[in-house]
Automatic annotation (TrEMBL):
<dbReference type="InterPro" id="IPR006913">
    <property type="entry name" value="CENP-V/GFA"/>
</dbReference>
<protein>
    <submittedName>
        <fullName>CENPV protein</fullName>
    </submittedName>
</protein>
<dbReference type="Pfam" id="PF04828">
    <property type="entry name" value="GFA"/>
</dbReference>
<keyword id="KW-0479">Metal-binding</keyword>
<dbReference type="InterPro" id="IPR052355">
    <property type="entry name" value="CENP-V-like"/>
</dbReference>
<keyword id="KW-0862">Zinc</keyword>
<feature type="domain" description="CENP-V/GFA">
    <location>
        <begin position="8"/>
        <end position="120"/>
    </location>
</feature>
<dbReference type="InterPro" id="IPR011057">
    <property type="entry name" value="Mss4-like_sf"/>
</dbReference>
<comment type="similarity">
    <text>Belongs to the Gfa family.</text>
</comment>
Amino acid sequence: DDEGLVKHTGGCHCGAVRFQVWALPDLHVFSCSCSICTKKQNHHFIVPASRFSLLQGAESLTTYTFNTHIAKHMFCKTCGVQSFYKPRSNPDGYGVMPHCLDEGTVRSVRLEEFNGKEWENAMGQHQTIRSMSKT
């Protein structure tokens, strides 16, 4: 259901990486406590791949993976900012960092804590996170 979606644009700090994403103006953002998200202070909202477009900078991205290698932590080689990534919970979609969006399209942010330290258990208990990358 595309009703109410707005086009958000954003990118990394140096401007090499730019993207657009169609999402609600009221964002449902996850704060994950897994090892990498804790170190990066990763807050993200999840969208289907069909609602995300990389506008420029594919050649400026590099990818870090670890453990299961399902999540693809992409970041700019120049400035080091991760403005989006492929989350383990939704590898067919994107996790987008709301703090990397350009100003003017976000109306509100609802932050939900996600217990990534106990990832498998937390995923089993969460009713909707796996479906967030489905259209």
